[in-house]
Amino acid sequence: MFFWHIGLSISFFRFVFKDFSADLRFLIVGVIFPEIIYLSLNLINISGIYPELGHALLFAIFLLFLVMIFTKRDTELRRNFLLVSIGIFFHLLFDFMWLRQEVLFFPLQFQDTERLTFNIGVLFIQEVIGLTYLIPKLNSQDKLKRFFSEGII
Questions:
Q1: Rounded Cα–Cα distance for residues 68 and 144 (Å)
Q2: End-to-end CA gap in the chain
Q3: Helices (DSSP H) in the chain: which residue ranges?
Q4: How far is 33 from 67, CA to CA, in rounded Å?
Q5: CB–CB of 26/152 below 8 Å?
Q6: pLDDT, tens digit, 9 for 90 and up, residues 85-114
């Protein structure tokens, strides 16, 4: 679910925050960061410990806490790292993590209830929804160039 997360997060960010000058590249990094952690833990074979650490609410809160402590107020660095944190929260929201409490509220102990599974049709529809938002926004070479250089769509 790559385009689902990116497209929906950008549209939701624009709707909620109304910030059209934000560098959306940092938001996208935050949106895909939990999946990078998940894949990295699986690749180095420590997935038995806790493979979905990046999908835990405590992880997102801890990262936001670090950004607020170690960055100066009203700087570009803080603004960009806040976008990464917001992206992680959006990932949790659009991954429907509230339905998997044992993952969302790690390390609290919840019973591992029935696994939430999406069939391939639902995943395909979600990707199409994300692409439906992104394609008109990035449909020319000038728009793509501006996005990759400035992070603005």
A1: 31
A2: 21
A3: 2-17, 24-43, 57-70, 76-94, 101-104, 120-137, 141-150
A4: 15
A5: no
A6: 999 999 888 887 777 777 777 767 766 666
